[in-house]
Design brief:
single chain, mainly alpha, 2 domains, transmembrane, membrane, transmembrane helix
Length: about 100
């Protein structure tokens, strides 16, 4: 349950301290991510990006594009998906 911290300092005029669950003042940053969690998320990002790329290539090929064009579209969708998911991961972990 969220509660006001016992040793809270107000960081500005009339500003309330951030709500947290463990009794300490929150500084607005996400907790650090350890290496094993980071590797797990990397694997999830890559697997999901591969699925998106395969779907894009298959749909492109089924739409009448040649093999080279289908592979190019699959590669582009893989790169875009990885970029977006890495940006989301970086934002969610606050660059830790």
């Amino acid at each position: 349950m969220l509660a006001w911290p016992k040793k809270a300092s107000l960081r500005g005029r009339g500003r309330q301290p951030d709500l947290i669950s463990n009794g300490e003042v929150c500084d607005g940053k996400a907790p650090p991510v350890n290496a094993s969690t980071r590797l797990l998320w990397l694997a999830v990002i890559l697997i999901f990006s591969l699925m998106v790329a395969a779907a894009a290539a298959l749909l492109s090929r089924a739409g009448g594009d040649g093999p080279a064009a289908a592979m190019f579209k699959g590669g582009a969708s893989f790169g875009a998906t990885v970029l977006v998911l890495f940006a989301i991961f970086y934002f969610a972990t606050a660059g830790s």
